[in-house]
Amino acid sequence: MIADLPPFRPRFPWWGGDLQTLANRLSPPHVDLAPHTSERLFLPMKDGSGDVLLAMLDRPTRPERGRPLVILIHGLTGAEDSLYLLSQSRLLLERGFIVLRLNLRGAGPSRATCADQYYAGRSQDFRAALTLLPGELTQSGVAVVGYSLGAAMLLKYLGEEGAAAPLVAAASISAPIDLSATSRSMLRRRNAIYHRHLLGQMKEEATGAGAVLTPAERGAILRCRTIWEYDEVFIAPRYGFAGADDYYERCKPVRFMPSIRVPTLLLAARDDPWIPGALYEAYDWKANAALIPLLTDAGGHVGFHGADDRQPWSDRAVLRFLEGR
Fold this sequence. Notes:
Elements: H1 17-26, E1 37-44, E2 52-59, E3 69-73, H2 83-94, E4 99-102, H3 123-131, H4 135-138, E5 142-147, H5 149-161, E6 169-173, H6 179-186, H7 192-206, H8 215-223, H9 227-238, H10 244-251, E7 264-269, H11 277-281, E8 291-296, H12 313-323
Helix pairs in contact: 2-12, 3-5, 9-10
């Protein structure tokens, strides 16, 4: 399992939650998956939309028999080429796992093949994607790792499915387990630069080539001044919520986590500048043995750049967890 993993200690110069969060942007690591091979996978949604999710399937040069397929799900405005997905994929490939990097609806290369848009509660897309995977990929089981918004969606799915979830294990990295509290945190003055950058990326993503929007929707998106407003005027009305607050309440992972029955690792940092660590500290973890919390003092948001290894500590924690299943 993960008991023998050294405790997380930040690596110089990435001290503090903000630098941990920004490390990949300030000093992007080079992640090359060679000599492992990758191929494009197309997952046509059967909801009448005509949308097709795109994924990248990574195969190890030396696959190990009995390893489950590991699906990686990116966070808000991320995609298959997000550095945290590439880093985790590389480590898993080296240990013989086949990896699928899934682009959510309208994310990355899926933008051009999707009229619609992902959001934190859109667990039905992941449910549909699982049914479209070839049997040769899933014959040894499926494990899933979600990051940030992708982790929130994963936790919702796991709770909805309960014991019926066709997964052997799951892991959540820096999930906003309470969407409303996370929204309020992002609106803090100290997060103004993060907020502005994310909102700009969200607007670009939601209005990109392939998106089908009414003139009113496009105008509403471009006029938004906060992420809450984006959810209020675009996500909520388009997907059947009364407003942003209703969306946050109905889709927050903490509503679904008591029903999770798949062994699930939940990794988060107390110094995450986006997601209050108090959300994790206040949760009653003893009430559900399937949930395995791993809360560190440092690490930022999807950071975990440790002093003992160039490989992110979160990558190694996920590997230990999966190998222990």
